[in-house]
Amino acid sequence: MPRQISSFSNETVKRIRGLRDKKQRKSEGLFLAEGLRILAEGRDSGCLPEIIAYSSAGGIHPLAEEIIVAAEAQGADVIETTPDILSKMSGKDNPQAILGAYRQPESGLAGIDRMRSPLWLVAQSLRDPGNIGTILRTGDATGAGGLILLDDCADAYSVEAVRASMGAIFTQSIAAARWEEFLPWLRSGVGQLVGMSLQTEHDYLEPIYEQPCFLLIGNESQGLPEPYEAECDLLVKIPMLGRADSLNAAVAAAVMAFQVRASWRNR
Amino acid sequence: MPRQISSFSNETVKRIRGLRDKKQRKSEGLFLAEGLRILAEGRDSGCLPEIIAYSSAGGIHPLAEEIIVAAEAQGADVIETTPDILSKMSGKDNPQAILGAYRQPESGLAGIDRMRSPLWLVAQSLRDPGNIGTILRTGDATGAGGLILLDDCADAYSVEAVRASMGAIFTQSIAAARWEEFLPWLRSGVGQLVGMSLQTEHDYLEPIYEQPCFLLIGNESQGLPEPYEAECDLLVKIPMLGRADSLNAAVAAAVMAFQVRASWRNR
Lengths: 267, 267
What we know:
Chains A, B: Belongs to the class IV-like SAM-binding methyltransferase superfamily. RNA methyltransferase TrmH family. With 267 residues, chain A is α/β, with parallel strands linked by helices. The first copy, chain A, folds into two domains: 3-103, CATH 3.30.1330.30; 109-263, SPOUT methyltransferase, trefoil knot domain (Alpha/beta knot, 3-Layer(aba) Sandwich), CATH 3.40.1280. Chain A is 35% helix and 19% strand. Chain A has ten helices and eleven strands. Chain A has a six-stranded parallel β-sheet with strand order 8-7-6-10-9-11, with helices on both faces. In chain A, helix 4 links the parallel strand 3 (51-54) and strand 4. In chain A, helix 1 (11-18) packs parallel to helix 5 (83-90), helix 6 (129-141) packs parallel to helix 7 (159-165) and helix 6 (129-141) packs parallel to helix 10 (249-263). The interface between A and B is large, with 36 and 36 residues.
């Protein structure tokens, strides 16, 4: 049976609200996902929330009902509350009618089974959580295995990243590592490390990429550090026809990821 | 000579701050761009601000100095002020040290010379200003002529869109129109209207696209309305390999725009 919560100062309300903060997410090991569409993606990927909060003010969608019942059966803390309190939890004026707090999976490189997919995305010091979520969504669309976050990236489990992922947070493996750990791990098995760079004449349309392909995406304003480029097995350039010499990081990742897949079409 | 402004209630301060509001932008015919990088793109594209405000608190960059001198020579209102007042103007805690208010160009379809470029991007009811700015940036990178905004799109001159465009707001032609105006305009000349759709078996990698190609991008959550798809000369599908059936709108636009260019490589 759902607990009814109508007090803003309730401990669970505060706890969920706290998940907007990275430190809190880390110490709790949880993250927040909002809205029926993303919760449904989670359920379809076998992920149910440990805490679920909803308002029945506008009626309950049958799909929401299913997710609530399934989460409860797995021992979730189920909370029925008001739109105002959901608004407090989510920090938004117009909150979604349902939200869930999910367990963060382990996120070491040991959890990455590279043979599971021919394509992996690797981001280095990417600062915008919206870009990280969008890259996860692109990873899902291109059949990537997951996203490896190198060095000082924004948190893939932040509310903004989860939202931009449109549910791919549940389908993509996620690992975080320093470059110094990543490189020996990468070289301990097969895999082609491909970087995007302005310092090369190799056009991105020319190669047939190897499998598994690890696509390295640099920081939004700096691109890849030179020593990282030097370790790549292949550097490619996306030609720029206008004034600018760069693309949005999530756009560059997508153009490359789709081209890597396209190169495998006629093999 | 720059005017010194140190009062938060100064009329120009209020006027610039007002440019964060769409109605105000429309009635003034101006828009706001922030930061040296974007202002430099503007200058390099032949655009100088009508009002320019800066703080010399951290020293003035030589490039900023050049832009200030050039704007002043063209009769701009040049304002030297404090970081606090720049913060008030821009609505941000950590404002850029320089910002400019620029004249919005005319934005009717009559201003679009379709023969100037083989590629044009067309967005329909796109709601996220960040997506619009990112699409402008992609348009610049792919040598598109500009972006046509159909129906109820977010404002390309909003602060978020200008920021995400990374200066492409100055290099891309921008027009706004209803579908009912756009279609007869399109059919009054040459051009292939290409839509992305799930209702087709045509893979996006197969065609050699015609020139000029008008690439039609649908709303973030609804995609293209069916009657719009019916008017397209070609519908193509980007295959999805994961659970999701859609991409971020700016990502989809970029994957298509780069593929259109790629299809012209070996002609």
